## 1
Amino acid sequence: MPELPEVEALADHLRRHAVGRTVGRIDVSALSVLKTFDPPPTALHGQPVTGAARWGKYLGMQAGGLWLITHLSRAGWLKWSDKLAAAPLKPGKGPIGLRVHLGTPGEAPGFDLTEAGTQKRLAVWIVDDPATVPGIATLGPDALEIGPEQLADILKPHGGRIKTVITDQKVIAGIGNAYSDEILHVAKLSPFATANKLTAAQLGALHSAMITVLTDAVQRSVGQQAATLKGEKRSGLRVHARTGLPCPVCGDTVREVSFVDKSFQYCPTCQTGGKVLADRRMSKLLK
């Protein structure tokens, strides 16, 4: 799933390559992608692109007085092309949900919003105010804008696992499964630690790790071509998606906890005092 660093890089890509161009045409291949119907996509035709922005893991492109906003969900992506085909997309079951031509179709660049897999969660809104998108309206503070004292206040009401709390977009915006694994590894915290029971030292380590990990990822991602962002993300990961490999800090084996539809990774030596967390949903949770 694209998280804060990748979505920020995609917004930067649109600022550099889309701003100043004009929306020529929008093709909708999957009607299920559109979550708003008024104004219609045709309202963007002929409008100049004036900006791009990020809210948590939401990506937006401004054209005229409207915003085209997308949430890429777990398997979505923005695929840029220097020259898109002129033929309109046909409704179907392919990976492309929506296409934006930035100029005369067949002669100009643009991008596709795509989604792999069978779970279709890619979502697009066309609005005049981003705050009217339900998910944006309920976002917590952006992860990169939270100070140490604010983080402590944010976590006070939450007695759940720290892994779950910091990936709740209503609590903190922008962190997903991958970067939460990385942040907790750097902070030397168990994913099952109780959020509102962290010590002052643990809170300080968590805040430092959150800012360091995300800032580093943003710096590595911004300026990359959209096509290379996924590879850049994987190359910078220390524990996430590295089950069975040695921890780059201590050399212990990176372990995994699997659930029905997702998994996370951690280092026992760095994070849980050497304890291996049971790999089943209903197991006793180790703190």
## 2
Amino acid sequence: MKKNKYIFLLSSVAMAAFFTSCEDSIDKVNSPIPYEQIGGYDNSDAIAPDHLVAKFSFDGTISDSKNAITDGVGQNVSYEAGIKGEAYKGSKTSFIAYNNVASSVINLKSITVSMWIKTDPHTGGAQSLYMLPKKTDFWGNIFTLIEGTGPATTMLMKNHTQRDVMPSIPWAGQFIEHNGANLLTNMFGAWKHLVWTYNGTSSTYSLYIDGKKLDLPLSLSKRYASDPTMGGGPYGELANSEVSKFIIGGFQQHLGPPFGNPDSWMLHYTGLMDEFRIYDSALTDNEVAALYKLEKDNR
């Protein structure tokens, strides 16, 4: 009897060792396989992390995860499935007003603005994706607008910045318009990754759609106060001033005093927006391409 009990114990130990060995083998076989890097990066937040000053993912919240743009209040804000998690869903009355803007945004010298948008053609005016206001300037400091084009397949877009050519001399109302031969094609009805950059050192502007840099004419890409062949100087670094508040989905005039009342053509953004980022540098072509692919891959 004792012999049989001893054999049984040995068998139990052997069986336990066998199953443990099998489990270890299964764990090794089924262990997660690391994602392949894209552009040298594992995830979107690994791209220029020291230059990322604001990030809005809109995953059920209006908060900036970098805490550079804070104290936000949303009006008629809702969310919908986005390119990565949830997305901000605009409407004819929706916008988000932020009351505090950190120096990391105010003192931008160069910039990259990156976002995903999904929208349809509209009429009646211009829709504002976002704006960094200025108290004493009708056009604010920085914004991106989508002009109403009606039921067309092209998007007329305007970007706007403040710059200094010489110290303390602000150049207001400098528009970069994608119109005429530079209208943006195939932008409606689907998610599009939109990135624009401005390098304050080289006075160079670039626009990327779905990770690809557009071939822009020199009149758009190189920013001069006037014809450089006639002595015109480059705009140089950004020069935001009198910054007060920040708005997503509307114009500064939608914030009320001291910005006045909105004109009838000033429209709220009615589309979807996701993964809105601001960098304090002009991202490289490789960084923009990687950002597009990684966010599209939900990383």
